[in-house]
Amino acid sequence: MTIGIVYYSRTGNTRAAAQLLADKLKQQNLSVDLIEIEAVKRPGFFSAGRAAMKQIELPIKNTDVDLGNYSTLVVGSPTWGGCCSPFIKTFFSSAKNIKGKKTALFITGGGMPDPQGKPRQMMQQDLTNFSVNLSDSFLGLQMKKGKIIKGEQQVDQFVQSIL
Ligand SMILES: Cc1cc2nc3c(=O)[nH]c(=O)nc-3n(C[C@H](O)[C@H](O)[C@H](O)COP(=O)(O)O)c2cc1C
User: Fold this and answer.
1) In the chain, where are the structural domains located?
2) Which of 14, 50, 64, 105 is the most exposed place for a label (fewest CB within 10 A)?
3) Euclidean distance between CA atoms 6 and 161, whole angstroms
4) Residue nearest to atom 29 of ligand 1 (CA)
């Protein structure tokens, strides 16, 4: 079984978290692909926050990605202005073969993401609209400069829930 980790990262934290998850899943002898959502233009701080809060879909390079080969998806976003990044919605609106796909979410933030908070709710809503099969498991990580500040103890449990 191959797991696809789909994420957007503007400053590297969510990428570092995705890489950590990939390494841990590979240690369990799973095959993992990292799929970074690539913005056509990297948004500045204010345009990122505005796009997230107003749900403005910013263009991406990797459209129409076929996710049919993956048994499971893990999807990660940074927190922007108390919302998820709009790039997640943009990516999944053109991605292929996602219907019914088992999907777990993770979120990074400058503060500790609330498991019941709006960024997760938004991702759940967006992905449910694209008919993926959302798992109950969730990972929130407080991060700074690519390092986990809080939430590391939950990483192994999250990985186990994906297996
Ligand atoms: C526009 C913008 C808004 C942000 N808003 C929040 C926020 O509301 N809450 C929070 O905890 N962190 C917030 N952050 C911090 C990021 O969520 C955090 O640094 C995240 O790990 C960045 O991920 P990345 O390095 O993968 O882009 C914000 C960052 C940006 C750029």
Assistant:
1) 2-162
2) 64
3) 17
4) 80
* 3-class secondary-structure state, position 34: strand
- 53 Cβ contact list (under 8 Å, min separation 6): 80, 81, 82, 83
Residue type at position 55: Q
Q: Which of 53, 80, 120, 150 to mutate to test the pocket of ligand 1 (most atoms within 8 A of CB)?
A: 80
pLDDT, position 53: 96
Q: Which CATH class is domain 2-162?
A: alpha beta
Query: Could you write out the DSSP letters of every residue in 126-152?
Result: HHHHTT-EEEEEEEEEEEETTEEEE-G
Cα dihedral angle (77, 83, 85, 89), rounded to 10 degrees? 100
| Candidate of 15, 45, 79 to mutate for ligand 1, largest count of ligand atoms within 8 Å of Cβ | 79
- Cβ–ligand 1 contact at 96 (below 6 Å): no
**Nearest-angstrom CA–CA distance, 76 and 17:** 9
**pLDDT given for residue 1 in this prediction:** 82
Average pLDDT of adjacent 10-residue blocks, the chain of 163 residues:
96 98 97 98 97 94 98 98 97 97 98 97 96 96 98 97 93
